[in-house]
Amino acid sequence: MDASASIWQGELVRLRAIEPDDWAFYFAWNQDDEQSRRISAIPFPQSAAAVQQWAQQEATRKPEGDAFRFVIENASGEVVGDLATHHCDARAGAFAYGIAIHREHRRRGYAFEAITLVLRYEGVSANSVAPCASQHGIERLDRRAVGAAASPAAAAETPYGPSG
Fold first, then answer.
1. In CATH, which superfamily holds the domain spanning 13-154?
2. H or E stretch including 164?
3. Whole-angstrom Cα distance, residue 12 to residue 130?
4. CB 82 within 8 A of CB 100
5. Is-contact 36 30, C-beta < 8 A?
6. Helices (H), 30-158
7. By CB neighbour count within 10 A (0-12 exposed, 13-18 middle, 19+ buried), where does 150 fall?
């Protein structure tokens, strides 16, 4: 990948908007109870039609401030995960995020790079990142990152989508 082409593209991953055709990825992902437990609980089953409708709505949703849901693709263009920013407060210079990497793609640096790309966009400096706890585990952010990016040493990789 040419990391210089877009702020949303790194060496390993590219962040992009959800497309209607992504419904199949989310539908299959929602069948993974381990992933669902990492969010909060196992949801009731959803039909393929419901997930298709959700993906269509997400694909056409306008961003609200800096709150946005990204699909994470690897260098081969394969969907490997999902990242959503929320509770964005530009005045305070703060935001929260949730990230999920499909189990087959974990431990390859995808979550690290995806978070780094968002942190660069949000203008978060490495010195302003503090450790934070979540109900899904502890997220430690490494202050040794260069430039305006901080790196997650251990990010809770939890799925998002129509059931989460």
1. Gcn5-related N-acetyltransferase (GNAT) (3.40.630.30)
2. none
3. 25
4. yes
5. yes
6. 33-39, 48-60, 110-122
7. buried
Task: Please classify residue 148 by burial: count the beta carbons closer than 10 Å to its beta carbon, then call 0-12 exposed, 13-18 middle and 19+ buried.
Answer: middle
* Closest C-alpha among 17, 36, 16, 11 to residue 103: 36
Query: φ and ψ at 80, to 5 degrees?
Result: -120, -15
If we measure between CA atoms, which residue out of 15, 11, 22, 54 comes closest to residue 164?
Answer: 54
- Among 31, 52, 66, which Cα is nearest to 164's? 31
Lowest mean pLDDT among 17-26, 36-45, 84-93, 125-134: 125-134
Closest to 156 (Cα-Cα) out of 34, 42, 45 = 34
In this prediction, residue 135 carries a pLDDT of 34
pLDDT digits (tens, 9 = 90+) for 100-111: 899 899 999 999
